[in-house]
Amino acid sequence: MSAETWRAEYCPVPVSEVSEEDAPAHVLRKWEGRLKKNMDRHGVGVNAEGYLSVWDDHSFSGFDFRALTCAYCEHCGDDCGVCQAVLAGMDRCNADDGPYDIFKRTGSIRPILAWVRKAKRLIDAQRKGNK
User: Fold this and answer.
1) Element holding 54 (H helix, E strand)
2) What are residue 60's phi and psi, to 5 degrees?
3) Which of 95, 100, 125, 98 shows the shortest CA–CA distance to 27?
4) Which of 60, 64, 90, 91 has its CA 20 to 30 A from that of 124?
């Protein structure tokens, strides 16, 4: 197993190719891949910064957990006000003391994973209500 197998399982489609409709599932899958048990299964770890990249000993085919790999951010650019998670009722993930800010400062994925799961539930419920 390697960073390549991790990427194939948790982020097989580049964010630039993810539709807005598929973004919630893509974002959730990516963050689930950051769980220690899933990283361990693929033999990957984090880089010297401690929390941002997935890598292995064989190569750096890394994967950074930041806006450039977020399907929500891909569709809203720098305007978090039009992020579909925010429009569904979530606070901005990158607000001061928001879940992504906590992840960047501490490496803890619990707050961001909870945020991503809730955002997906809200978006799915809105879509179901609009059909």
Assistant:
1) strand 53-55
2) -105, 95
3) 100
4) 64
pLDDT tens digits for range 53-101: 666 666 556 677 888 889 999 999 889 999 999 999 999 999 999 999 9
The domain ranges of the chain are: 3-126
Q: How far apart are CA 1 and CA 20, in angstroms?
A: 30
For the entire predicted model, the pTM comes to 0.87
Q: Which two tokens stand for residue 51?
A: 């929390």
Tokens of 34: 């950051």
Please state the length of the chain.
Answer: 131
Show Cβ contacts of residue 7 under 8 Å, excluding neighbours closer than 6 positions: 54, 61, 63
**Confidence (pLDDT) at 96:** 92
List all residues 6 or more positions away from 115 whose beta carbon is below 8 Å from its beta carbon: 85, 90, 93, 98, 99, 100
